[in-house]
Amino acid sequence: MRFQTQLEPAVLIRRYKRFLADCRLADGRDVVAHVANPGAMSGLAEPGMRVWLEPNDDPKKKLDWGWRVVELAGGARVCVDTGLTNRVVRDAIEAGALRFEGYDTLRAEVAYGEKSRVDFLLTGPAGRLWLEVKSVSLSRQAGLAEFPDTATARGARHLAELAGCVARGDRAMLLYVVMRDDCDQMALAADLDPTYARGAHMAARQGVESCAYGTVIDTGGVTLGERLPLGLAFPPEQS
Questions:
Q1: Rounded mean pLDDT of 23-42?
Q2: How many angstroms separate the CA atoms of 162 and 173, rounded?
Q3: pTM of the model
Q4: By the number of CB atoms within 10 A of the CB, which of 5, 50, 132, 236 ranks highest?
């Protein structure tokens, strides 16, 4: 997945109203950037952090800048735009970097469950595979990515709906994409959302598959990286 235009460096002044950020460009100009991330962004939105913004001249967009990447101390990069994760996955599937044997047709945003749309539906001789993609950006321990970064009722609903697909004879999968380049494993943040963690544990027992992949991030774009170890077990004392 390549950014449409070259990113420009800036310094974060503040993030506010979830979807807005004041930033200072290298030439000293202060601009407002759109933040395509509804999550808590813990550790990723501190004033003074180095960020990378994408300029645009689309008259349909209210803001001229979009916040895409934050650079952490030490040089690690995190893509904070959750809307790009599906593009990363789609590009990987279409390029053959992410393969699902027995499926040759890919459709996006297909209605399923109750008033929901799955990110991707793959079909072919193997049947149907319902693929839900989750963008992962939280890390509270070196090398370990976690999901979610805040309570997500929508995510819990998706787990139940994927389990329903399996019950009807289809295949269903949760694909966690770690949108940061400093983690080599992933686990559930059960302390932040025990309901989701419990739901993921139950969905796995009901046949919903799960996997996690890392990413390679630079100022030109984001590409899917290697598969990462994924821990889904719910803490025994809370299960």
A1: 96
A2: 7
A3: 0.94
A4: 132
Domains by residue range for the chain, with CATH: 8-79 (2.40.50.580), 82-238 (3.40.1350.60)
d(CA 204, CA 104): 25
In sequence order, which residues have a C-beta less than 8 Å from that of residue 184 and are 6 or more positions away?
A: 143, 214, 228, 229
pLDDT tens digits for range 77-90: 999 999 999 999 99
Phi, psi (deg, nearest 5) at residue 35: -110, 105
Angstrom distance (rounded) from CA 232 to CA 190: 9
Q: What mean pLDDT do residues 135-157 have?
A: 95
The side-by-side arrangement of strands in the sheet containing 230-231 is: 138-141, 143-147, 183-188, 230-231
Alpha-carbon span 205 to 79, nearest angstrom: 32
Pairing relationship of beta strands 30-35 and 105-112 according to DSSP bridges: unpaired
Convert the pLDDT of each residue in 190-219 to its tens digit: 999 999 999 999 999 999 999 999 999 999
Q: How confident is the model at residue 234 (pLDDT cuts 50, 70, 90)?
A: low
Residue found under tokens 């989701």:
196
